Amino acid sequence: MQPDARLLEGETRPPSAPEERFSNFYRQHYWLVLAFAQRRINNHETARDLASETFRVAWTKFEQAEQLGLAFMYQTCKNLIGNEYRRQLRDAALEVKLQHCPDRGTSDEHSARLREAMLGMRDAEREILYLTYWEELSAQQLSEVLGCTVEAAWARISRARTSLKHILRSEVPNA
User: Fold this and answer.
1) Whole-prediction pTM value?
2) What's one GO BP annotation on this UniProt entry (predicted)?
3) Residue 84 is part of which domain span?
């Protein structure tokens, strides 16, 4: 009995390792997921990031993703697109809020610097400042949202404030 020539050539060999199965899954679905994201987000780079994040999630839940296939990928991508729209709305709301803050003795130049500094921060730090100052969450509430202790929430607030101060000071000429 001779072995099947197709198996020797690797044509019909079923993928065995999860990495190999995921690689095949990725090749099969990537362009469809990217097109799905691009139809909903008008920025190509953001759509690519969302497609990548969709596959990162799929890797962490690969058994489910492999079983449900494209439906899982589309639902995951749809959820990530919703997150992206919410992030964009928060950024726009911050922009509006910073432009229309009641005058507390600060100049328009200071408001513009603060706005630029906030937008230049890492997303995680900026989100902590949003939640603390714009959403007016207490440290206890913030700890629940972040899934950490109250002490860790205070530490994160402190680091975000320090980061904002550093950015603001680095923008001041001759400081």
Assistant:
1) 0.51
2) DNA-templated transcription initiation
3) 18-96
Residue where a domain terminates, one of 96, 125, 149: 96
Q: Is 10 a domain residue?
A: no
Could you read off the pLDDT of 20-47 as tens digits, one per residue? 989 999 999 999 999 999 999 989 999 9
Q: What are the start-end ranges of the H helices in the chain?
A: 5-9, 18-40, 44-60, 62-68, 70-99, 108-119, 123-129, 139-146, 150-171
pLDDT in tens, 100-115: 665 555 566 777 777 7
Q: Which residues of 121-146 are buried (b: 16+ CB within 10 A; e: fewer)?
A: beeebbbbbbbbeeeebebeebbeeb
The CA dihedral of 159, 163, 166, 167, to the nearest 10 degrees, is -170
Domain count, the chain: 2
Lookup: tokens for 33: 């997921």
